[in-house]
Amino acid sequence: MYKTWLFNNKKKKERKDMINYGRKWTPRMVIYQQNQEEVLKRIENESGAKPGAPGMFKHYQAAVKRVMAELDENELEKAKETAEEWSNNFPPPEVQAQVAQKKGPAYMEHFSKEMWRQCGVRVFVLSAWKNEQGEVFLGCK
Q1: Which of 15, 17, 56, 136 would bridge 49 by S-S if both were Cys, CB 3.0 to 4.6 A apart?
Q2: pTM of the prediction?
Q3: What is the DSSP string of 45-82?
Q4: DSSP class of residue 21?
Q5: 32-63 pLDDT tens trace
Q6: Strand ranges (DSSP E) for the chain?
Q7: Closest CA to 42 of 28, 58, 62, 72
Q8: CA–CA separation, 83 vs 63, rounded Å?
């Protein structure tokens, strides 16, 4: 009896989107993005872990922290301004290309599933974006 009452009167959870469209950039993220090769080289030199290997990720935070520690106040302030600009407007095309390649298909799939679930509408998406080398990629979902 109590179990049934508790089950029927529990607080209902709001359904939350699994994907957060957009990103709030931080100075740390900007510094990593601008010094990505240096950070990956440090990780490889100091720990021997190859980029993308599972063991690399435990050394990531320390490597970024060391790169940030070597920057002077002007560079940190510039990174903070860049993070605010990227958050309010949009990042440069190279960063957009990385995000499109990494997250684009998941965004499109999520959107099409939500449109079907909420509205009963089938969505066909034709996407095109430029990669870091400037080549145009086409994709259908």
Answers
A1: 56
A2: 0.67
A3: HHH-PPTTSGGGHHHHHHHHHHHHHTS-HHHHHHHHHH
A4: -
A5: 888 888 888 888 888 887 877 887 888 888 88
A6: 126-130, 136-140
A7: 62
A8: 20
In the structure encoding, which two tokens stand for residue 124, read together? 């066909």
- Report d(CA 25, CA 27) in Å as an integer: 7
Pair of tokens at residue 93 = 């095309």
For residue 30, which of 89, 85, 99 has the smallest C-alpha distance?
85
Per the listing, tokens 């009167």 go with: 9
Q: Cα–Cα distance between 91 and 103 in angstroms, integer?
A: 15
d(CA 91, CA 105): 19
Determine whether 54 is exposed, middle or buried from the number of CB atoms within 10 Å of its CB (0-12, 13-18, 19+): exposed
Q: Which of 58, 74, 140, 66 is nearest to 104 (CA)?
A: 140
In sign, the C-alpha dihedral spanning 53, 58, 62, 68 is positive
pLDDT digits 0-9 by tens, 65-82? 888 888 899 999 999 999
**What tokens were used for 79?**
């990174």
Calpha distance 30→14 (Å, rounded): 33
Residues 6+ apart with CB under 8 A from 110: 17, 18, 19
